[in-house]
Specification:
Arc Repressor Mutant, subunit A; homodimer; 6 helices; DNA-binding; 3-stranded antiparallel β-sheet; mainly alpha
DNA sequence: CACTTCAAGTTGTACTATACAACCAGAACT
DNA sequence: AGTTCTGGTTGTATAGTACAACTTGAAGTG
């Protein structure tokens, strides 16, 4: 396999993966779509942030984020706190329930990945992870 | 980084990739969604196949495939030929236009990937491609 | 200060991809 | 001939998304 073939293969395989990910994520966790999961994860990681930040970070329209957040709030996984310094801003925080669901889904996803990767030598796992990080890192956007 | 960390990282990065792929694919090629692209690609590779095969291969509902194919036919990228041996079956084939569009989108996707991977040493590309194939191959479905 | 402009979010509307269920038509197997 | 299986379409519903119009608060400018 030369470089060109490798690039084509990477393209094909990443695409193949992406095609399935959302659907299977939905099937695995009907209570938390891939998007919701990602947003909750971001909130946990940042310990709260604004809707606008989520939109910018994930290249989503602000209306999309608004509705996602509304749903998460209805489900009591997220709460909004109006920023006292700027009353336009709502800082989003995980609720206790949100934190729990997130942990639970993360764990079950982790288990699924681990099962799939069970027979890989550690060396390969580490290298694969490194490649993925490197592949994703330049980018805000492109595929 | 140990194996556990690597698994978590792989999970995170694959998910991050999946989250963006469809949207950016759509933006790059408004004329051919990621799904349509994938289906056309499959038709080219197999030199024609049945709608049911597509559904099975991509874990899509047959109604979904039916509508996708209908759209592709409306766009004159695909044509149906009733199987003379079994009148229930329609064998799908790329049209000339379909072949052209597919080639064009493939090329532009390839260029985007290649740009992104431009500064990778060939050795890493080959290994990365290998990992992806290996990761995707067991599966019909997960993660 | 009054006026304009900017930024954060929400709501209305529309579209796409998708699934599930009900159905139809041809084939296969008693 | 009658039942069951298979390939495909259509009806209906849902999720996720974008874009445009609007509201409200903040910031800058005369």
């Amino acid at each position: 396999m030369d470089a060109i073939e490798a690039v084509e293969s990477i393209q094909r395989e990443m695409t193949a993966f992406a095609r399935r990910a959302r659907a299977s994520a939905g099937r695995m966790h009907p209570e938390l779509s891939l998007v919701s999961y990602t947003l909750l994860g971001h909130l946990e990681e940042r310990d709260g942030c604004r809707a606008t930040d989520l939109a910018a970070h994930y290249a989503l329209d602000k209306s999309t984020v608004s509705r996602q957040v509304a749903a998460l709030e209805r489900a009591a996984l997220v709460e909004r706190r109006v920023d006292p310094d700027d009353h336009r801003v709502q800082v989003l925080h995980l609720t206790e329930a949100g934190r729990e669901i997130l942990a639970q889904v993360t764990e079950s996803r982790r288990a699924a990945f681990q099962e799939r990767l069970a027979d890989w030598p550690e060396e390969d796992l580490v290298r694969f992870a490194g490649y993925l990080v490197r592949y994703n890192s330049p980018g805000t956007d492109r595929p």
